[in-house]
Design a protein that fits this description.
Oligomer: heterodimer
CATH class of the largest domain in chain B: Alpha Beta
Largest interface: A-B, 32 and 30 residues
Distance between the termini of chain A: 56 Å
Number of strands of chain A: 5
CATH architecture of the largest domain in chain B: 2-Layer Sandwich
Helix content of chain B: 25-40%
Order of helices and strands of chain B: EHEHEEEHHHHHHEEHEEEEEEEHHH
Strand order of the largest sheet of chain B: 4-5-10-6-7
CATH topology of the largest domain in chain B: Enolase-like, domain 1
Largest sheet of chain B: 5 strands, antiparallel
Order of helices and strands of chain A: EEHEEEHHHH
Structural class of chain A: alpha+beta
Radius of gyration of chain B: 19 Å
CATH architecture of the largest domain in chain A: Roll
Largest sheet of chain A: 5 strands, mixed
Shape of chain A: globular
Strand content of chain B: 15-25%
Strand order of the largest sheet of chain A: 2-1-5-3-4
CATH topology of the largest domain in chain A: Ubiquitin-like (UB roll)
Structural class of chain B: alpha+beta
CATH class of the largest domain in chain A: Alpha Beta
């Protein structure tokens, strides 16, 4: 049995410390030790995108990283996206408005991916949106609502920047 | 879906990495972006007693100018390759192939060296490296050696890199102008492994005659392959007169596909050679435009 390694990283603005074997994935650390259960585990091998989080500002699959690799990193999960407890992030708001979710299992991964995607592509075409969300699987919506939500979020986020 | 236990090493220099690999041999595996290795570990298709993480080895990251071409450190993220101006300018084929790799979340972690060392026959960078005659720099405790792409891919998932060696960088030279490049692949869904793919480079002389042709193929054999029949048929032709669909059909002779649940042998031969024709058409159109401008 490999030794337990002390872990420390910033999760949604707060320092989280823990202990884990090297094989502990970042996803399991976030769920079980940082108690960010919005990090969902669908496939656990990098296909479904449900576990997507931001590490140092970039969207990554947290099931394909070991927690020890994220030691010292700055992690944002879906719990850390909204500016405060009363306000939703524009992407979250848009998913609610446009029926971008049904069962909700894939939603945290989508929301993180779309937030990161819009950061890099503030004014995407529908084709770019479809390409941008292709790394996340949804088995309920048929994606139409998610594309519409991404479109709305893009417009709102652009408006916010201009005002 | 949890990996078997392993001991974790996070060295910060290539010297320390190759020292660990020399010490542990077959029992150790370098971890690059982890977008292929971690799923293999999670599904327990493989296991290693020692994982040597390369993510803190700064000297393995980054793209630099190299004798008119580029040298990419093995740990350069695919996302960094995708947006690098020197890559886009000097090695357009590498730039064109990158968005086809997985999804942007995968490219944020995945690395060029990891993709090439993993040597999945359906992945993009190995076929590009083969088409462009890229060179691999491989380090061990006894020094660094260079291996050309033609000798690098030995069989499926097997390369010239020995267990005690580390792929440290890839070098690609720039082509003389005018030249045209194109890349495309067929996949069931965006981001899936390709059923077939093609990476094409075409160079001409001042009169528009083809004097250099490179066609790399992925997904149609146990390793990435070159369509030598296509390349031979192109040389000496006027780029504006070559019939890409007709010449592309020759590519089937250079393929060695397997049939599986995703596509039959016949399908891969037909779809693959049709694709080679289409990608070739794109590269030819581009080189004709380039020549017209020049």
């Amino acid at each position: 049995m490999a030794d337990q390694i002390p872990l420390s990283m910033t999760v949604n603005g707060r320092t989280r410390r823990g202990l884990g074997e090297p094989r502990l994935t970042l996803a399991d650390f976030l769920r079980e030790q940082a108690l960010c259960t919005g990090v969902h585990l669908g496939c656990e091998h990098g296909v479904c995108g449900s576990c997507t989080v931001m590490m140092d500002g970039q969207a990554v699959r947290s099931c394909l990283l070991f927690a020890v690799q994220a030691d010292g990193a700055d992690i944002t999960t879906v719990e850390g996206l909204a500016p405060d407890e009363e306000t939703l992030h524009p992407v979250q708001e848009a998913f609610r408005d446009c029926h971008g979710l049904q069962c909700g299992f894939c939603t945290p991964g989508f929301v993180i991916s779309v937030a990161a995607f819009l950061e890099a592509n503030p004014d995407p075409s529908d084709e770019e949106i479809r390409h941008g969300i292709s790394g996340n699987l949804c088995r309920c919506t048929g994606y139409q609502g998610i594309v519409a939500a991404t479109r709305q979020a893009a417009a709102v986020m652009k408006g916010n920047e201009q005002s | 879906m949890k990996p078997a236990p392993f001991e974790y090493h996070a060295p910060e220099t290539v010297a320390d990495v190759v020292g660990l690999l020399a010490e542990h041999g077959d029992d150790a595996k370098p971890l690059a972006g982890g977008q292929s290795l971690v799923p293999l570990l999670a599904m327990r298709l493989t296991r290693f007693e020692h994982i040597v993480d390369l993510n803190r080895v700064d000297e393995l990251f980054g793209v630099s100018a190299d004798n008119g071409g580029v040298r990419t450190g093995a740990m350069t993220r695919q996302a960094a390759v995708e947006t690098d101006a020197a890559v886009a300018d000097r090695v357009p084929l590498l730039h064109l192939a990158t968005p086809h790799i997985g999804h942007f979340q995968i490219r944020n972690r995945g690395t060029i060296g990891g993709s090439i060392a993993h040597a999945d026959p359906a992945s993009e960078y190995p076929a590009v490296m083969l088409a462009l005659d890229g060179v691999a720099e491989i380090a061990s405790t006894s020094g660094t050696r260079e291996v050309p792409a033609a000798e690098f891919f030995e069989s499926t998932f097997m390369t010239a890199v020995a267990p005690d060696e580390l792929l440290v960088a890839l070098r690609f030279s720039a082509w003389d102008q005018p030249a045209g490049f194109a890349f495309d692949e067929i996949a069931r869904r965006s981001g899936d492994f390709a059923l077939a793919g093609a990476a094409v480079g075409i160079g001409t002389d001042a009169d528009g005659r083809i004097n250099r042709a490179a066609v790399g193929m992925l997904g149609v054999g146990p390793i990435p392959l070159r369509a030598s029949s296509v390349e031979a048929a192109l040389l000496g032709l006027a780029a504006s007169e070559a019939d890409p669909a007709e010449i592309g059909r020759l590519a089937a002779d250079d393929m060695d596909p397997i049939g599986d649940v995703h596509a039959s042998v016949d399908y891969r031969l037909q779809a693959g050679s049709t694709l080679v024709g289409r990608v070739l058409a794109e590269a030819l159109a581009q080189v004709s435009t380039e020549a017209g401008n020049g």
